[in-house]
Structure formats: structure tokens, C-alpha cells
Amino acid sequence: MSQFAVDTSKEISLALDTHVHIYPTFAPASALDSAWLNLTQIIRDHHLENAVPAFIWSRFARETDLYQLLTAHAAECGGWYADPAETTSVGFWAQHTDGKRLFIFLGSQLVSQEGLEVLLAGAYEAHFQGKPVADIITHYGNTHLVILPWGVGKWMGQRGRLVEELVCGTLNGKFVLGDNSSRPAFWSPIRAFIKAERNQHKKVCPGTDPLPIKGQEQRIGQSGIVLEHLPADIFTSSDILPRALKTGSNQFKSGFDRREHPLRFFLNQLKIRLS
């Protein structure tokens, strides 16, 4: 089995899940095994060369500290570990004793004053929690990948109109919109996505966004984006990802997205509300 060895002297490709959480209900080994299997399948399907499976760990307070587990408690992680010497401000390599490797971009999830989720790649310690969404985008938009992710009930009413205003406003070049693999196929079209793609030619970035339910970790890596022609500095510099997603970049090849089955979607929503 190919372990996808990477030559950092050449251009890099990424199969990247843009929205991952690691909850206490998840078995870390299962989460990483699933991420590697799902993302390497995308690499094969897209015939990517010199490719790395990767995800953005959009960490917030209730999550397991995956990095600490992999560096200090690797025995609990089923053969997975992380070497602190290979850690940068952008992220770290998760490695397996059998040779598998994937890159984990450090990130944060904020909730704005208006109640919108904001994801930041390359910002492990974000300090704008509860600030207006425009202030968060303004502060981080030039140096980090900023994603406004769709969520069930999150973009309705006034919040939905605010997202549309941001898409069409002066800050539109400083962020991208994120889709959610839990959104079933029968859901009505999202107006902000339509405006972003048709009017501003902005990319919409799918991500798994697993729910805090046992077994959801197996979905990590089933949704995301494919990027090509990236410099190896992608693993050390936080401004490369946002540049790759800007209008006109030839580095965004496509998105990939495996939707939740409608029945499973309703069962998951029921479990969340009863937990």
C-alpha cells in the first residue's frame, strides 16, 4: 500500500477536509484512521501527484486536545503519534508506526457577536471570541484562511442576511464560505452560496464538521477540497491557504462532498437535541 511519500522540493497537492472537530466521544485512533483512509481515496480518485491527506482541526473548548494526545500520550492513539520537532505555527504531522502520515492544520472555531461560526486555519489561539464577525474577518483575513461555515439553522433570518451582505460587501475577498456534509441533498439551495459562486466567483469549501456523536469520527475526510500546485511552505506559512482560494487562483481544483443520508440526518439531529 502506498504511504504517499512527499517530495517537498516539488509542488504539493492536498486533499483537505476544511472542518474537523475531535470530540471526547471519538476514539482518536478511529478518527485518524478514517481521515487517512477517506482522504487517500480522494487522492487516488483525482490522480493527484505528490499529494498529502490533510484536515483543518477547528478546535474549540469542548474538544479533546489531539495534539497533546499524540505527543504525550501516543500509547492511547493506536499507533499514531506526533513529533514536536516537526510542529510549526501552522500545524503538525500525525504519523503512524506503519508509515502513514497526514498533516493537521491547527485552527480555531469562534462564535461572533451575531452568533455566526467562524473558522480560522493557522490560528490555534484566537482571541476574538464574541466580537463582531466583520472585526474577526478584518483582523485575520489578510494572513489566515477565514471560513464562514454553514450550519443547521445558523444562516436563517437576520444571520443569513448578514452572510449575504458580507459576500457582496467590501470584505468578500478576505474569507470563503464553508459547506457542511451533514446538509442533506434535499435541502433548499443556500442563497449565500449561489451569490458567492455566481457574482463574486468565490469558492465554497465543503467540510465534514462531524457531530459529537460516537461513530461520526468515521466521516472525517469524506468532504473537503482538492488543491494543486502548492509550495511546500504550505506547512509553515499561514497565508498560502487563503491565497490558494482567492478568485483567479489555479490551485483550487474541485470540492468533494459525501452527503449524510436524510434518515441519518434526522436521527443525528434528534440525538443532539436529546443529549
Itemize the secondary structure elements and their pairings.
Elements: E1 12-20, H1 28-45, E2 51-59, H2 66-72, E3 80-82, E4 91-96, E5 101-111, E6 117-121, H3 133-140, E7 145-149, H4 157-168, E8 176-180, H5 191-198, E9 204-207, E10 223-230, H6 240-244, E11 252-257, H7 262-274
Parallel strand pairs: 1-2, 2-5, 7-8, 8-9
Antiparallel strand pairs: 1-10, 3-4, 4-5, 5-6, 6-7, 10-11
Helix pairs in contact: 4-5
Structure, explained:
- This protein is of the alpha/beta class and 275 residues long.
- The chain has one domain.
- The chain is 26% helix and 26% strand.
- Strands 1, 2, 3, 4, 5, 6, 7, 8, 9, 10 and 11 form an 11-stranded mixed β-sheet that branches.
- Strand 7 (145-149), helix 4 (157-168) and strand 8 form a beta-alpha-beta unit.
- The longest helix is centred in the first third of the chain and has 18 residues, at 28-45.
- It is globular and about 50 Å long.
